[in-house]
Design goal:
18 helices, 494 residues, 77% helix, mainly alpha, globular, single chain
Length: 494
């Protein structure tokens, strides 16, 4: 490694960013005294923090790396995924956020999604909660591994380290601040990181287009690519369009996202958070598209070895080194945001939904340390997986997104709106949704209908299973469950 590297403005800004992250982590540690604080921030987060936390934990490095790179190579036909995600996120805020915030507090102050399912249906067997927690742990361990790989590649590109050393640095920073401050740290750092991500995505394409002579000059430079470059339907089938739009359905079942709704100060904080998050998300998504387009115009005729690094390449060429360092920090923050949220969701499942379920008299302070130990164990497994990455990282993310969305999404939605939904219906729907994704993905290589994104059939079949089993194959719901549901409905109207 070059010993003069640490005099580089770009690297100094990046290191300052890491210091800020740890300052927030230490502060969060001071205000974390029990498991509710560690897992859910004591349900005291303001609307803006809830908003950018939900956005930053959702988008990850896909937003700043994969999407601009895909647009650079393929053109505007990549727009369907941002459209699908925008619609899905809006519907999630509109139909889930307020209800989940109210219902999880009424349902025995549920701190996690598995706990909510357990308390919502008053499942005395605890089977539903254990199965849900197991699914969360499985998918999020691989999800975290994917985030560690992305962080490792970025640190490697910045410092010129061997991949394994870069991986350890990037992943240990994330593990450290999650252990230190828990949900409060993750949420405030995500607020900080979400702001950085948006700044990076706005500045780079604007500076690039200005360098090229403006918007019209940029479009003229892109015209040499042919009309198909601006054709949203070029090179993509109807199944392909539907598959990209279907990604939006995944929002309803992503614990790392919907847990942010549960942490809001009150249901009245949700509308402000929704406005901020959707504004942030739409700006971020479409400026990511502009980054890919302006990058294609800037590097016209030149083949890039790593198209997904277009944002960083443009920043390093066109911006002052100090500002470029801020952009690199923003890119790394995108990987850190999602991965920290996934680690925390996994730790929550391990401490609250396994350990606390078995050791019912465990003290709250002890449970905080169990959660921190869980972060270390799960993080260690994820590092081990990431140290020998195989396959496409973003394909792995897509697989996990489908698995979580198809397993949990319909159950979250239906449980909030239908009081006759039963424990049996929830278990059946979860199993059917998960199995559909597993089977559909294994058959996807045959093409045809199986080239459709597995989340869509998994979501539909899960919903059907929930209705059929709840309506005809289960015992009627308990009176106490109905009473609790009606109480939540009354509170939502106040």
């Amino acid at each position: 490694m070059n010993t003069t590297l640490f005099s580089s403005p770009l690297v100094l800004v990046f290191l300052f960013y890491i210091v800020v992250v740890f300052v927030i982590g230490f502060y969060a540690n001071r205000v974390t005294s029990n498991l509710s604080d560690y897992i859910l921030g004591g349900r005291h987060l303001p609307g803006p923090v809830v908003a950018l936390g939900a956005g930053a934990s959702d988008m990850s490095s896909w937003l700043l790396l994969a999407l601009p790179g895909a647009v650079l190579i393929n053109g505007i036909n990549q727009i369907w995924l941002p459209i699908g995600l925008s619609i899905g996120a809006y519907l999630n805020w509109q139909f889930v956020a307020r209800r989940l915030r109210v219902y999880t507090e009424i349902a025995n102050d549920s701190l996690t999604i598995p706990a909510y399912f357990d308390n919502r249906f008053q499942d005395k067997t605890r089977i539903l909660r254990m199965v849900t927690a197991a699914v969360v742990l499985l998918f999020f361990t691989f999800y975290a591994a994917a985030g560690f790989v992305a962080a490792g590649y970025l640190v490697q590109a910045l410092f010129g380290l061997a991949y394994i050393h870069a991986l350890l640095i990037g992943s240990l920073v994330i593990i450290a601040y999650v252990c230190l401050g828990g949900f409060v740290a993750v949420s405030w750092i995500d607020f900080f990181q979400g702001t950085l991500m948006l700044i990076a995505l706005i500045i780079v394409p604007i500076v690039t287009m200005h360098h090229l002579g403006g918007v019209q000059a940029t479009l003229n430079d892109l015209a040499v690519k042919g009309q198909h470059y601006f054709d949203a339907f070029h090179g993509i089938s109807l199944i392909g369009v539907v598959s990209l739009l279907a990604w939006g359905l995944g929002y309803f079942g992503q614990p790392q996202i919907i847990v942010r709704f549960m942490a809001a100060r009150s249901k009245n904080a949700i509308p402000v958070a929704q406005l901020i998050c959707m504004t942030w998300m739409i700006l971020a998504l479409y400026f990511a598209v502009f980054t890919g387009l302006s990058g294609q115009a800037f590097f016209a005729g030149k083949a890039l070895q790593h198209p997904e690094m277009i944002l960083i390449e443009l920043a390093k060429i066109l911006l002052n080194p100090w500002l470029a360092g801020l952009i690199v920090a923003g890119v790394l923050s995108s990987a850190m945001s999602a991965t920290s949220a996934q680690l925390l969701s996994s730790a929550s499942a391990a401490s609250e939904d396994f350990y606390h379920l078995i050791f019912k008299k465990a003290k709250s302070k002890n449970l905080v340390w169990i959660a921190r130990a869980s972060v270390l164990v799960i993080g260690g497994i994820a590092i081990w997986i990431a140290s020998r990455p195989g396959g496409n990282i973003f394909a792995l993310v897509g697989y996990a997104w489908a698995g979580l969305g198809a397993s949990f999404g319909p159950i979250v939605l239906i449980s909030l709106y239908w009081k006759r939904m039963t424990t049996g219906g929830a278990i059946a729907g979860m199993i059917v949704g998960a199995l559909t994704v597993l089977i559909w993905e294994s058959l996807s290589k045959h093409g045809g209908m199986f080239s459709l994104y597995s989340l869509l059939p998994g979501f539909v079949f899960n919903s059907v299973a929930v209705y059929v089993v709840s309506r005809w194959l289960s015992k009627p719901v308990l009176a106490a469950v109905t009473t609790e549901f009606e109480k939540a409905e009354r509170l939502l109207k106040t």
